[in-house]
Amino acid sequence: MFHPRKYLFRFLFLFSIAVILYATLYRETGQGDIQLQLFWTIKRAWREHSGNHWYLILGNIALFMPFGFFFTIILRKPDWKKAAIIGFVFSSVIEVTQVLTDRGLGELDDVLHNTWGSLMGYCAAVILGYLFGRHSNRYKGKVKGASLFFGITILAFAILIFYNQPDWNVRLRR
Prior knowledge:
By secondary structure, this protein is mostly helical. It is built from six helices and two strands; from the N terminus they run H-E-H-H-H-E-H-H. It has a two-stranded parallel ribbon.
């Protein structure tokens, strides 16, 4: 039986892959270097009140959210571990490709943020699938954990970003 939604979601999943590849690999030249220090972008964003670094962190997360979202929807049995693993592997392949082709800086932080984005997409798919999906029982046992993960992530980033603004940040003098 022909199910147009199924093909639409598969197309959108492939489209999200194409967008990610275009955004990460289609550029003139990059550094072709590697940065293996974990959390360096968050540390720099925090220390320097760098809106640019927060933009890069949130951009990497947002870039992989549709990937995790549509991957979760096309699975018969959604699983956060599968969403995390596929996001991690795809992101790792991109980072290695950037280094080998001199298309960008291969960063461990990017792999972390992209995997986080894939998990956020998973959470959004579970929550929306439970609320509006035809097969809401597929998401029934997963919606509490997904909602908690999604909510804590949003709250944590809101606190980090707003507290890091110079007007909001209270520094202790030593």
